[in-house]
Design goal:
The chain is α/β, with parallel strands linked by helices and 206 residues long. 46% of the residues lie in helices and 12% in strands. It holds the Pfam family GerE.
Length: 206
């Protein structure tokens, strides 16, 4: 992945930020580009993209319907669908339309990086293809954070309380508390303040 340039197509800026941090700090990708829609993705040159991470829910043309035009535009560039759920029908649609993989957004950072690397090496990464040989344990303190937890961590560093984080990310306060607990455990922090200091020191939110 170190020599790869990855295009993230997702309409949520915070998720794109979280993925960019994971890909550069854990996966050590050479370059990351971002687009908020299929239309925006067409602004990029085919030769500058090695892999596309495509959100399934997008404004205008959705991810599944966008696979075909993106494959025509970016000939030979593998596409991985990203989704908050793993519905069998969506996975089958993605596979039949020529996607190289389907990843759940709740996957751990190291699993995402390993699956993406596997696709860059010519493989596929659909849920039923999961194999321990695809996974490695990259170095980095944030390797066990999911993209969603990175989003929560960013808001924590901005000093936002759980109630506001829940509102911004459209989730329940209880879900936010679960994410915060997971973040503290992953960073080895005993409280929110310590987690923020560790995140800032390690550059996890910049």
């Amino acid at each position: 992945m170190k020599d790869s340039h990855i295009l993230i197509v997702d309409d949520h800026a915070l998720f794109r930020t979280g993925m960019q941090m994971i890909l550069t700090q854990v996966g050590e990708a050479r370059g990351i580009s971002e687009a908020s829609s299929i239309r925006d993705a067409f602004d990029f040159c085919e030769s500058s993209v090695d892999l596309i991470l495509l959100d399934i829910h997008l404004p205008g043309l959705n991810g599944i319907d966008g696979i075909k035009p993106l494959r025509e535009k970016f000939s030979g560039v593998p596409i991985i669908i990203l989704s908050a759920s793993s519905e069998h029908s969506a996975i089958n649609d993605a596979r039949h339309l020529g996607a190289a993989g389907f990843l759940n957004k709740a996957a751990l950072a190291e699993e995402m990086v390993s699956s993406i690397s596997h696709v860059l090496n010519g493989g596929t990464c659909f849920p039923e293809d999961t194999d321990a040989s695809h996974y490695v344990s990259p170095a980095g303190i944030g390797k066990s954070l999911t993209p969603r937890q990175v989003e929560v961590l960013i808001y924590l560093c901005e000093g936002k309380p759980n109630k506001l984080i829940a509102r911004e990310l459209e989730m329940s306060e209880n879900t936010v508390r679960v994410h915060v607990s997971a973040i503290l455990a992953a960073l080895g922090a005993s409280n929110r303040s310590e987690a923020i200091l560790i995140a800032q020191r390690e550059g996890l939110t910049t």
